Q: What sequence folds into this?
């Protein structure tokens, strides 16, 4: 979509560490004070803000934007074009204890293509955030989020649907929803939203 992609070698600011055994795609920029741990794959044309830690063994798809102060731990997978707002939090141990080793009990967190996670939101491990879903600032997500779901609050609940363009879809009773901003259209069925025509 809109943004230009680059075929340049990745840029890593000199204050950041990239461990051996990592792969960083063309055009990706990694800004100040980041650490990318071994076994991690970051796609093309991503932007990783200041003070991010990613890995080990984490996958980040193409064109993701990760804002300042985000840690992506083992068990987190971001598909393409995922937006992680500043200081959002991922987890990988469901019942942590300082005195019990639970590294073999990591639960996977999958964030699907095009989803956005608001500033300071927490994603409790073991959930899947659907395609183009939107997690509001400060939410605590504890359940799977359907495609296009708009979730806010603690614990996060679905308060509506968002368009692929990121704007909330108007609440209607008809089952058909049309975006006021980009005119994409969707149909709602059994608590799921499917695209009829996406114009972005
Ligand atoms: C979710 C969001 C996009 C607003 O969407 P919206 O469709 O305009 O929603 P509204 O503001 O009309 O709010 C709808 C309801 O949800 C509530 N709400 C909205 N965002 C909320 C949030 N983050 N947490 C808790 N409640 C929230 C509103 O208070 C309102 O409640 P009400 O119906 O009881 O009055 C916005 O609030 C948000 O969280 N954006 C994320 C910003 C961010 O983190 N950016 C990071 C990059 S800088
Ligand atoms: Zn739209």
A:
């Amino acid at each position: 979509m809109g943004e230009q992609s680059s075929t340049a070698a990745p840029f890593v600011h000199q204050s950041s560490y990239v461990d051996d055994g990592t792969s960083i795609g063309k055009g990706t920029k990694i800004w100040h004070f980041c650490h990318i741990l071994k076994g991690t794959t970051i796609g093309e044309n991503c932007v990783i803000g200041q003070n991010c830690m990613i890995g080990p063994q984490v996958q980040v798809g193409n064109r993701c934007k990760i804002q300042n102060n985000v840690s992506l731990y083992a068990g987190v997978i971001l598909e393409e074009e995922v937006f992680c707002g500043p200081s959002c939090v991922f987890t990988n141990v469901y019942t942590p204890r300082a005195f019990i080793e639970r590294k073999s009990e990591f639960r996977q967190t999958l964030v699907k293509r095009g989803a956005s996670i608001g500033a300071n939101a927490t994603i409790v491990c073991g959930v899947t955030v659907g395609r183009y879903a939107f997690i509001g600032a400060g939410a605590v997500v504890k359940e799977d989020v359907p495609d296009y779901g708009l979730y806010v609050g603690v614990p996060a609940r679905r308060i509506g649907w968002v368009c692929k363009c990121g704007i909330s879809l108007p609440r209607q009773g008809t089952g058909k929803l049309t975006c006021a901003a980009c005119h994409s259209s969707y149909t709602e069925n059994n608590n799921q939203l499917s695209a009829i025509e996406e114009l972005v």
Remarks:
- The first strand starts at residue 11 and ends at 12.
- The chain has a mean pLDDT of 95.
